[in-house]
TrEMBL record:
Name of the featured protein: Glutathione S-transferase
Origin organism lineage: Bacteria, Pseudomonadati, Pseudomonadota, Gammaproteobacteria, Moraxellales
Domain GST N-terminal intervals: 45-138
Family that this chain belongs to: Belongs to the GST superfamily.
EC number: 2.5.1.18
Domain GST C-terminal: 142-273
């Protein structure tokens, strides 16, 4: 790296030659894989969840609690806390089920294969797997309803990194405030909020107006954007003027009042040690 009047010039080859600062500097690394040996606990329920109550983690909590609300015994689960601030996502047991070392991860012990139980990582994959397994909250027949649901799921997967890794990081977690990235990601975050607000003007839920249209697209998007609209993320409600998005506010508040959602955001996770 070379410096000229404090202007950063990228080197020809990047090397990790200093602490990058920020809230998660102590655990950031350009390499993957386990950093220490640690087996994961396994409870008696068919589903074992290893997670944290971040927006990505809350997504899975919501679906599991919605399935519990319907009395589906096969969706019973044990939930364990993976404290990412302590680097617990790099224990060997967790890396074995999620080579990407990110929460959440889930293991389905009810359908053991010759290779053992089914392990899943990535929140979208977990929700789609569970929704298809129990035939709830995801239209299975090819057609508009399924297409709409999948489209909004993928919208969230593509959009949330700009909100979390972009806006959230530079606004709340970076070692110092920097005008360019904050402005860049604020503009994109507000554009995304406007996308949702405009769509929800004519839709009670993301995929329609009936109660039966509530599905995993709402759960996935609400965990990030609903909580952001309700002032639950990054202490940024005033900065982003979230109250201006009236239709988004209506949707976010309605979902927040669901009993399963209330339980999901307050879910108690068992420590893994």
């Amino acid at each position: 790296m070379s410096q000229d009047n404090n202007k950063y010039v990228p080197p020809k080859v990047w090397t990790q030659d200093k602490d990058n600062g920020g809230k998660f500097a102590s655990i950031n690394s350009p390499t993957s894989g386990a950093r220490y040996d640690k087996e994961l606990p396994v409870g008696d329920a068919p589903l074992q969840l290893y997670s944290l109550n971040t927006p990505n983690g809350v997504k899975v909590n919501i679906l599991l609690e919605e399935l519990a609300e319907l009395g589906i015994d096969g969706a019973a689960y044990d939930a364990y806390k993976i404290d990412i601030s302590k680097g617990e996502q790099f224990g060997s047991g967790f890396v074995e089920i999620n080579p990407n070392s990110k929460i959440p991860a889930l293991v389905d012990h009810s359908t053991d294969t010759a290779e053992g139980p089914i392990a899943l990582f990535e929140s979208g994959a977990i929700l789609m797997y569970l929704a298809e397994k129990f035939d709830k909250f995801l239209p299975l027949a090819t057609g508009k309803a399924r297409a709409d649901c999948l489209s909004w799921i993928m919208w969230q997967m593509g959009s949330a990194p700009f909100l979390g890794g972009g806006f959230g990081h530079f606004y709340a977690y970076a070692p110092e405030p920097l005008e360019y990235p904050i402005n860049r990601y604020t503009m994109e975050t507000k554009r995304q909020l406007d996308v949702l607000d405009t769509h929800l003007k004519d839709n009670e839920y993301l995929c329609g107006n009936d109660e039966s249209d509530y599905n995993i697209a709402d759960m996935i998007v609400w965990s990030w954007y609903g909580q952001l609209a309700l002032g639950k993320l990054y202490d940024a409600a005033e900065f982003l003027q979230v109250e201006d998005y009236k239709h988004l506010q209506r949707w976010a508040k309605k979902i927040a009042e669901r009993p399963a959602v209330k339980r999901a955001v307050a879910l108690e996770l068992k420590p893994i040690d």
